[in-house]
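REQUEST ID: PR-0412
SUBMITTED BY: lab tech R.K.
PRIORITY: routine
TASK: structure prediction, single protein chain
INPUT:
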Amino acid sequence: MKRGFLIFIVIISAVLLLAACGDDTSKDENSSKDDKKTSEDQATAEEETKTDEVWEKIKDKGEIVVGTSGTLIAASYYEGEGEKEDELTGYDVEVMREIAKRLDLDISFEIMGIDSMLPAIQSGRIDVAANDIEPTKTRREAFDFSEPYKYSYTTMAVRKEDNSGIESLEDLKGKKAGGGATTIYSQIAEHYGAEVITYGNAPNEAYLRDVDNGRTDVVINDYYLTKFGVAAFPDFDIHLHPTLKFNPTEQAVVLPKGAEQLAEHINKALEEMREDGTLSELAIKFYTEDASIKPEGEIEEVEGLEF
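STATUS: complete
OUTPUT:
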């Protein structure tokens, strides 16, 4: 009788001990989950605060500061006579003006070379950049981008008489290509063996004149910009390469990394502009073609090079 009673007591004690352990384990697990959730909530709050700072700064100023070059015909350039002489305009410029208008913001432009624009975003000198800039994989590591407002591809300005001796991308080897130091176009030229001659924030005329006079052989650039650049200087012995179409591209507004709210507001404005036809109207006004949609036809991909 006593033996049976003792066994019963031992069994009950073991059950109670296991239950207590289970409670402690459950508490530990719940505590760990709560701690993890708190950490995640804190991280999210910190990220939202960081994101808010970019947009809040712009809202508080009531103004968005945009970096652009003022040297790209059709995209960002100066034109006009009389009272409107030296007025900054172009597709990228007017797209940004329309975005600012829809966000109820004033807008100002800082004129600088393409090689200076991205560092200027990081330093806070400007809020965004709009200068026919491609959101490449490398750039996305350091910056955010809006949705594309322009679609295009890459081509070349070459001498009329012999296409500067270039009939394929491989023929770039040994040639001299005028371009900016950090552009994807210069990366393409170097990839195929060309020597890149840099100019800083020079106007189209300087690049194209050097192809005409033989100081360089080629300017590799966006199709629309090259087309209008060549047409602007009919006295130069240059033309758009008749057969080479390569490297399909997208152009977008460059934003500080993590500026999610700013990106959201800009993208909403761009979506409205696309839906109501404003984006197409601006593209056709400056390019005579609708550069806001993807171009048709076969466009050669550049292989072996990650931008």
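NOTES: Residues 39 and 156 are 53 Å apart (CA to CA).
REVIEWED BY: pending
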